[in-house]
């Protein structure tokens, strides 16, 4: 127990006694102020330091005072005291408070009481950190189209669309969706510091809706996004989408993976895209081409489409998995195109084949210079009387059953240029097996 007391005397009469004490088991120094019954106490307290203590007035009710204070006492004697007494008592009391706090020897660790500010939870801090660290990797893409003024005949460039993208490497390669840049006469890329650069198209893959651009920006302004893996994703894990919906600045939406191994069709060619990630993170117009991140801030997909009759997010969005994107981007950066094997045929819509009561892919045309034509597959044609003669109907490739066009594409995606595949067809009323050597897809302008 550390105790200090001081008494103030005036004309040999005890006016007040101020006592401060601190117990080793308490964090605060306690104080007691006693005054003669003939005095009436009025106290106003003003904090002067962060050291807390307890003030115990004669009523024995405790009031916690944050920080040391200057105690201003207004004392009035019923018989009327002089103003000199008031001033002297105020001075002595203030000195007593300061002196006894020094003697109390309150250790600094327990003496300071910090009012806890409003703090974020650990998961909130992780989300904030993820957004701050990955936002510099996300860019805003403006699609400009050439339009001729009807009156002046001047050719102007007007925005016809916009979307998002992200920095792939320090060489200035930007990855986005193909449908974001489709039909553009000029492209502008805006970085996170609001600097804008002209972008050139390095290459694109219409079938998988992926495109690669390049900007001549300083390397210190380019922040490549961390590349993750999509093969081990699980339904229910958290995901984060960053983009520029509706032309707004960088926006973060959160959600979970609500489905895996979905299949959607490419907006450009209708060719199926397999193993697509389904998420409930809000993806709106303008989010296309932006990154989908896991909780570690690694890229796991490209936001590409939503399922919504109104065109706005309805809780079902789709992202192309990064494992698919990785191989495509590598080919586009190295060769400017994707080398994908084809059979070289045109086939009928699936509904037409179903109406005929058949199962498989009906060959409408097999050009003679294509791999299927060279192998001898027959096209659909008409005879001399105008009657329709059905061509070959593909029922399997390499022993894998083919019931529609999506099945055929899925099998070809697992093959390489130059592979020899065995195509089983239904020709008339009998089946035949025809070997076909796959060739690369022709160049696209």
Automatic annotation (TrEMBL):
Q: What is the lineage of its organism?
A: Eukaryota, Viridiplantae, Streptophyta, Embryophyta, Tracheophyta
Q: Which domain of life is it from?
A: Eukaryota
What is the organism field in this record? Answer: Bauhinia variegata
User: What is the protein name for this chain?
Assistant: Uncharacterized protein
């Amino acid at each position: 127990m550390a105790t200090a007391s001081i008494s103030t005397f005036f004309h040999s009469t005890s006016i007040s006694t101020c006592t401060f004490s601190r117990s080793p088991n308490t964090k605060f120094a306690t104080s007691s102020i006693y005054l003669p019954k003939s005095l009436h106490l009025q106290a106003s307290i003003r904090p002067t330091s962060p050291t807390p203590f307890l003030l115990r007035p004669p009523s024995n009710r405790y009031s916690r005072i944050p920080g040391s204070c200057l105690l201003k006492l207004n004392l009035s004697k019923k018989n009327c005291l002089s103003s000199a007494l008031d001033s002297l008592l105020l001075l002595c009391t203030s000195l007593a408070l300061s002196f006894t706090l020094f003697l109390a020897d309150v250790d600094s660790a327990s003496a300071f009481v910090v009012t806890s500010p409003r703090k974020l939870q650990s998961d909130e801090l992780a989300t904030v950190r993820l957004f701050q660290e990955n936002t510099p990797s996300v860019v805003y893409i403006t699609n400009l189209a050439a339009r001729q003024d009807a009156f002046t005949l001047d050719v102007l460039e007007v925005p016809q669309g916009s979307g998002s993208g992200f920095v792939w490497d320090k060489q200035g390669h930007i990855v986005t969706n193909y449908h974001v840049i489709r039909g553009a006469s000029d492209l502008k890329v805006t970085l996170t510091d609001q600097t804008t650069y002209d972008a050139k198209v390095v290459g694109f893959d219409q079938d998988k809706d992926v495109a690669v651009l390049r900007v001549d920006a300083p390397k210190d302004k380019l922040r490549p996004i961390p590349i993750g893996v999509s093969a081990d994703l699980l339904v229910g894990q958290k995901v984060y989408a960053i983009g520029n919906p509706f032309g707004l600045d960088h926006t973060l939406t959160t959600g979970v993976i609500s489905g895996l191994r979905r299949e959607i069709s490419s907006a450009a060619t209708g060719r199926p895209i397999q193993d697509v990630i389904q998420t409930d993170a809000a993806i709106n117009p303008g989010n296309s081409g932006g990154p989908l991140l896991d909780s570690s801030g690694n890229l796991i997909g490209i936001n590409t489409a939503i399922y919504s009759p109104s065109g706005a997010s309805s809780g079902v969005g789709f992202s192309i998995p990064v494992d698919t994107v990785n191989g495509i981007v590598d080919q586009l950066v190295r060769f400017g195109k994707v080398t994908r094997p084809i059979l070289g045929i045109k086939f009928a819509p699936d509904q037409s084949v179903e109406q005929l009561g058949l199962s498989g892919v009906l060959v409408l045309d097999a050009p003679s210079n294509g791999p299927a034509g060279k192998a001898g597959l027959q096209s659909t044609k008409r005879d001399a009387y105008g009657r329709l003669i059905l061509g070959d109907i593909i029922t399997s490739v390499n022993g894998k059953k083919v019931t529609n066009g999506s099945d055929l594409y899925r099998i070809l995606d697992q093959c390489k240029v130059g592979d020899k595949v065995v195509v089983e067809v239904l020709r008339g009323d009998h089946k035949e097996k025809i070997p076909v050597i796959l060739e690369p897809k022709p160049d696209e302008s």
